From TrEMBL:
Residues 242-295 form the PAC domain. InterPro entries: Bact_StressResp_Reg (IPR051932), PAC (IPR001610), PAS (IPR000014), PAS-assoc_C (IPR000700), PAS-like_dom_sf (IPR035965), PAS_fold_3 (IPR013655), STAS_dom (IPR002645), STAS_dom_sf (IPR036513). It comes from the Bacteria. It comes from Nannocystis radixulma. The keyword Nuclease does not apply. The lineage of its organism: Bacteria, Pseudomonadati, Myxococcota, Polyangia, Nannocystales. This is PAS domain S-box protein.
Amino acid sequence: MLEAGEETAGLREQVERLKRRVAQLERSDANHRKAIEASPDVTFRFGLDTVCTYVSPAIVDVLGYAPEEHVGRPTFSIVHPDDDDMPRQLREHALATLPGVSSTDRVGPFLSRLRHKQEHYVWVESTVVVIRDPDTGAVEEFVLTARDVGARVEAEAALRVSEARFKTMLDNLQVGVVVQGARSEMLSYNETALEMLGLTADQLMGRDSFDARWAVIHEDGSPMPGDQHPVVVALNTGKPVRNVIMGVFRPASESRVWLLVSASPQFDASGRAFQTVCTFTDITAQKEAEALIREQKELLERMSSPIIPIAAGVVVLPLIGQFDAARAERILDAVLSGVAQHGARVVILDVTGVSTADAAFAGTLLQITRAVALLGAKLVITGMTPAIAQVLVGLGIDLGGLVTRGTLQDGVTFALAR
């Protein structure tokens, strides 16, 4: 058995160890309290009845109260009536307490409004630690830390308003807009872009410029591979691409839309092109109108330069309108084809309907005369007006080899007499 002195010494040693442990805990608690009191965040402690037992000095700066003004009051009495998510969850934790459970729970963060002493509300982000009895798991108290996030909330609200205005503006533009990422993947769009492309949002998002379903073609009808698309070129070169005409397949109508496309790269801090803003307008109607105009012009030119056989070996070609190099070439082709087709020995070229005369027109007359002669036929020009004759003479071109008659009737008489 231990002697009384030995037992007493052992008890003293245990007491000393406990004293050192208590002192250590007191120092740790003091350090924690200093940290809490130096923090700009407000710390509340309260029990199951929600009555505040402690509040840190930061409450003065954040909410305008002195700590002693809030201690002893229900902690949630200053929470905005509409922000009940935090009190509700804490009540659920308290009710969920199970005997024999030991745990420390962290709940949140919560975004809520707390009433300032001057009767306005302050946006705070709160986190709550649930303190439980280590043996039973029963909730003993709560420690709530609240951080003033009013500036952040205001900035986020302003950003949301700005984004909403920007989206409204984009959606009301008559220009399609898409933003594509560093791999040319679709990131965002406006409604006009969806309408022009004939796609839904789900169909558009996730596509990139290399997707074969675009079936893009150049203006001449040749395929336009993905690496030639304006967005990809802009990303690869780091330079804007302007006014590229693209024919894009529209799956909704199984048709093709013609777009005038521009792409502008955007750069991050390192100078890397991380996305591209692509804008486009629908020029399908313009392209169709241009094609129709070309067809009508060609039809008109064919109608204004018909080869008309009027007798065996005699054809008439009446000319109407103005001349350019392309039309002169077509007339020459028509004359040569008509001579060969009809076996003509006389070609009557009636210029009564020609509105202007210049060097190109005179050159055309000489070229047709020589070509007809090579085929063994004779060219007769009728309907030469004084104004045209004066212009041709003024150009200094030798027209001595041309056979002319005043009227078409005179020309026909001449041809039939040969």
